[in-house]
# Entry
Amino acid sequence: MTVYQVSHVSVWIIGFGRRTGWVVLMNDELVPHSMAAYRLSVLPGDGTGREVMAEALRILAVFEENSPISFEITEIPCGGQYYLETGEEWPEGSFEHCRDNSDAILLGAIGWPGARLPNGDMAGGQTILGLRSGLELFANVRPVKLYKGVPHKVHGIHKQVWEPDLVDMVMIRENTEGLYHSLLRRMEQRAKGQKDEPIVIDEFPGLEGEVAWDPRPISRKGSERIVKFAFDLAHHRQKKLGTPQSVTCVDKSNVSRGCQLFRKVFREIASEHEGVETKEAYIDAFTMWLVRDPEDLDVVVLPNMFGDIATDLASVLQGGMGMAASANLGPNHMLFEPVHGSSPKYAGKNVVNPIAMLQSVQMMFEAIAYRKNDSNLDCCADILQNAIQEHFDEGGCVTYDLGGDASTSDVGEAIAERCEIMLREQFATA
Ligand code: GGG
# Structure
C-alpha cells in the first residue's frame, strides 16, 4: 500500500471534511513514504479537559486495536493546574516536541482558577496560545452543524428549536492577531524561551488614573490569509455539497480601524472570487441573525475575539459547548480541541459531554487522512462520525447538557463500543 507524506514546497492543497465541509489547508506537496504510526502530541490540560481527553484516548485505542491505523502518542502534562503543582506550564522541550515530532496535536482545555503567572497572564497559556502563535495556526475552524436528535436547551427545557438541515455553517476565526495579539506574542516568546518584549504606550490622552489596555492590531497579511482560506472553503463546499455558498465577513468596521482594514481586504479578495456570494455584517447585528436565521449562513470569517465570542453563541445551535469541535490549522501544523474550556465547576465529577472532544478527534482523522492520503484513516473518520450520529439516532445515553444523566465515561464508552462494532465489520476482511 502507498501512503503519502508531506514535503515542503509552496503549494496550497485544500481538502474537504466530509461531515461539515471544513477545510484542511497546507503548504505542502504529497510524496510517497512507507506506512508508519501517526505521531500525536496529547495535551489534556486542566479540569474537564483531562476527563474528555480520557475519552479521546479510549476511542484512539479502539481504532488502533480494530483497524490498520496506529498512533505513537506522547502525552504531555500541561496547564494551570500543572503550573500550580510544578511551577511550570509544561515540561521543558514540549513546544519543540509539538513542533518537530507531531503529525497532529490534540488538546483538552486550558485554564484554572488562581493559576496566574507572576505578570498576571493565564498560566497554561503557553500551551494553547503559544502553540497557536508559535506554529502559525492562523485558521481556527469551528464547524456549526446540528446532529439529528440533539435537543436545544432554552429556558431550562430541552427541545428541538433549530432544524438539523438548516444549521450547517463553518465559522473561521482568525487565530493569530487582533485583541489576542499581545498575549499570543508573550505566550509564543515564553514557549520559545525568548525574552518578553513589552509594547510600551505611556498614556492615553483624556484618561486619568489607573488604565489597563490591550492593543488590537489587524494586519493586511493576517487578514488576507484568513479571508482567502474562507473563500477557498466556500468553493469546496459549493462543489461537494452542490449548493451555492456565501462568505460572510463579520466585523465592526463602522467604528474600528482594524476592522476597516479587515473589511477592505475582504472586498479585494471577494472581487477575485466570482460565483461565491458575499455578505457583510457588523458583529452586534450578526449575533441576532446567527440565532434567528442560521440557514442564511455558510462560511463566516471573523477577527479573533469576535470569532471567539460568536462561536460560543453558535454552539447553542448545535446543542451547546459540549458539541462544539475545532481545528487550528496552519501551513505546517494542526491542533484539534473542543471549543469549551476546562469548566472548573464540573471538574472531577465525570459529568461533562465528551462529544466535542470526540468530534475534534474525528476532524483530526479527516485532516491527517487528507494530508497523508490515507484511505484507511479516512474510513475511520467516517466510522467515528457515523457512530456519533447513530448514538443519537438510537437514543443513546447523553449528559446533563443534552437533558440526560449519563456520565462522561458512559457516553465515551457507548460511542467507543459502536466504533468497535463498525470497525470490525469494516476491517475484518480487509
Ligand atoms: N479547549 C479550549 C480551551 O481550552 N479554551 C480556553 C481558552 O482560554 N482559550 C483561549 C481562546 O480560545 O480564546
